[in-house]
Write a structure and sequence with these properties.
The protein contains ten helices and four strands. By secondary structure, the chain is of the alpha+beta class. It has three domains: 49 residues, no CATH class; 119 residues, Alpha-Beta Plaits (2-Layer Sandwich); 67 residues, Orthogonal Bundle (Helix Hairpins). A hairpin with a 5-residue loop joins β2 and β3. α2 runs antiparallel to α10 and α8 packs antiparallel against α9.
Length: 305
């Protein structure tokens, strides 16, 4: 009876302890008894926290290393790649009041036409032939822009050396200014009329002198001399009228655009390509993109786990 009563008492004590929810003191393990497993959350959390922090630090170091390597590669490329130098000049393209007509779009079109003309074959082809190059090759080395809210056109030329860039730009500027300053058809017509009128005036002046001498010598009549003087006055009046038309066209800007060299060609102090700061920034940007791709891959793997 004693053994049986002990068994029931032990079972009752376990039943009471589990039902009341009170923790029972841990009893010592006997021989051959297996300990109960502990909660996995209590053991794994610290290890996971320590591993995650170490992994995050490692990723940050790898990211910084990649960005620094990209920056260094950009700087190295800027030092190793062949340098391109530039030269710059500025043209003042004056638009007269008659040409403006209060229409901003018309002014923009006129300036845009000059940009196209500056890079046209009429301007660049002779320069390319002198340099033994193709037009398309030279066209890539010439850039033209209109400065903001102005009538100033900025022209730049690139070359392997500062001297080459200067020579190319000077040739382009000379060709452009020579072509743009050629008079229009109407101006040429007036110039021709003025030249003819001046030649006629010179002939009549010579005839008047001859008739004056002949009248004094009695070999010519006064009437002939008077007629010659009348013709001379008429020729002088015609010459003045034509000159007035030419002056009026110039005053109103109808004789052609008033394009003049505002800033003569000069060399830029630093190479236009490659630029160290831009190269370093590009390398750093590539590094950031690589780091971003790596971070995306790591985040996807964690999500799957």
């Amino acid at each position: 009876m004693t053994d049986v009563s002990h068994v029931f008492q032990y079972g009752a004590s376990e039943s009471n302890g589990s039902s009341t929810g009170q923790e029972q003191p841990q009893r010592s393990l006997g021989t051959g008894e297996v300990p109960l497993p502990r909660s996995s959350g209590q053991l794994d959390s610290p290890a996971e926290d320590r591993g995650g922090g170490w992994l995050t630090t490692r990723l940050v170091l790898v990211a910084l290393t990649i960005i620094l390597l990209g920056t260094a590669a950009g700087l190295l490329g800027a030092l190793v790649l062949p340098k391109t130098y530039g030269a710059r000049a500025e043209i003042l393209y004056s638009i007269s009041q008659d040409q403006q007509s209060g229409d901003p779009l018309r002014q923009d079109r006129q300036l845009s036409n000059q940009l196209v003309f500056l890079k046209s074959r009429n301007v660049l082809e002779p320069v390319a032939q002198k340099q033994g190059r193709q037009y398309d090759d030279l066209d890539k080395n010439i850039s033209v822009t209109v400065l903001d809210n102005s009538e100033v056109i900025q022209v730049e030329a690139d070359g392997p050396t500062k001297l080459a860039a200067m020579q190319t730009l000077q040739a382009v500027m000379d060709g452009y200014l020579t072509l743009i300053r050629q008079p229009s058809g109407a101006t040429l017509n007036l110039d021709t009329q003025l030249a003819d009128a001046h030649a006629n005036t010179t002939q009549i002046q010579t005839r008047v002198q001859q008739l004056t001498t002949a009248v004094l010598a009695g070999t010519a009549t006064q009437t002939a001399l008077n007629d010659a003087r009348t013709q001379l006055n008429a020729s002088l009046d015609r010459e003045k009228a034509i000159q007035a038309k030419i002056d009026d066209r110039k005053l109103n800007g109808q004789a052609g655009p008033d394009a003049q060299l505002l800033t003569p060609p000069y060399s830029l102090p630093d190479p236009v390509f490659p630029q160290p700061l831009i190269a370093a920034g590009t390398g750093a940007l590539v590094g950031v993109l690589v780091v971003g791709a790596m971070a995306a891959v790591v985040a996807r793997r964690r999500t799957r786990l």
